[in-house]
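Lab channel / #folding
Pinned by the channel admin:
"Please post every new chain as: sequence first, then the structure tokens as a reply. Keep commentary short and put observations after the output so the thread stays searchable."

First post following the new format, from NK:
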Amino acid sequence: MDGEVIVLQAGDPWLTTSSLRTIGIFSDEEHFTEFADKMLEKGIISDWGYKSLTGYYGMGRQCDIKNGALLVSKEPVNPSIDSVDL
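Reply from TO:
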């Protein structure tokens, strides 16, 4: 495995699978945090949302936005067949 990427998705308030769309894929926490900083500056997310998305509260990196919610996950890059649960 070559590591992980950070995936930011937006969806409806319940984050139903069919509503999710990818907003961005980030190579590391620093790049994601820069993006989150801009969302906070523009009022897209609250201070609580910023802390949630950047992992301040631990797992469950998600927050509400106008008309929906955001979800952050970490996904493997080039996983081996032995490292995935299928």
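NK: The helical segments are 29-41, 47-53.
TO: also worth noting, The chain has a mean pLDDT of 95.
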